[in-house]
Amino acid sequence: MSRVRVHNFSISIDGFATGEGQSLDTPFGHAGERLHEWFFPTRTFQQMQGRPEGSAGVDGAIAATWDAGIGAEIMGRNKFGPHRGPWENHDWNGWWGPNPPFHTPVFVLTHHPRPSVEMEGGTTFHFIDATPREALRQAREAAGGLDVRIGGGPTTIRAFLAEDLIDHLHIAVVPIVLGRGERLWDGLEGLEERFRIESVTTPSGVTHMTFTRP
Amino acid sequence: MSRVRVHNFSISIDGFATGEGQSLDTPFGHAGERLHEWFFPTRTFQQMQGRPEGSAGVDGAIAATWDAGIGAEIMGRNKFGPHRGPWENHDWNGWWGPNPPFHTPVFVLTHHPRPSVEMEGGTTFHFIDATPREALRQAREAAGGLDVRIGGGPTTIRAFLAEDLIDHLHIAVVPIVLGRGERLWDGLEGLEERFRIESVTTPSGVTHMTFTRP
Asked: Which CATH architecture has domain B4-84+99-212?
């Protein structure tokens, strides 16, 4: 059965997954890189940068589970880029350069569809204006029986959680208080009733939480 | 040096320390007892109920640190009781019965002062209309050189954190999404810069966080 998964999604202890003021230079707004410092040393991140080595402790092990068995990703437009409203042109193809780390079809949710873009390495961006359920239908079809990853940001993950479409959720809680930005948990009262939840704190100070189906 | 400490203060993963709708029957509103289930088996809680035994694992060990060296407590009026506005009478002396578990002077912050009440076992409730700093001055004087505990609720702890008056903060993060109530972290952006933070998850599923002065 094709599952729907979220991996390596970081939030502050006050529940913000991104700060205020996203821009080309600050994809996470005033949060800067602070939500992801635990992730940078991992082999998963290092390999995304073309470097073969990286940490393989518990943070590394958990991070590495993100891509096995994934056949497609769905992301919100704010993960794809800092632009709002109609596209001025189609020059922007994400933050990740010519060879993005996804290597699968990626469905970008936007009210402003544009032509698909085939990148190097197997990533193709499709731009669709669709409900979570319809986006998932398309992604599942493209995934050919494999799992679908919901890549973020918080608004997108929250929408999929609200419709109970997510089977596996990995959250990394970082011990900082961001104070403002976009919250993950809003509107999800009682979420714990639908999942088995495990938590573990690692020496980086991050608490990893996994939400899986009971 | 007399320190200011918070212990055994539970919040949900979305940061609520109490739910909506506090009443005589529901001190934590719609949260019920869910934020404190980890605490009930501990020897600390069991002894408050007059039972000598209780769990002494990691939850128990952390919970037990709450009273050594404490000479006074400060609490908000909503921790003391569900009443709002002027007191209709002085019959209410807290949720804890004739012998409250504090055994020290307890300063209740309220805009409606009333006469002090001496309870059994060394607890005396004083009702004061004071700023955090002035309340702390009075509590320190009453504590005779010992530490002062800030007992909650969230509004009170937040006010003391905002003025940087707290030296030791123990938070137990419970893996539930409450959705509504009173948040702990609001208005405390950058709090992590003032503390050394450690986290540990225990088999009960709770993540204990300690914030201490670096």
From this structure: 3-Layer(aba) Sandwich (3.40)
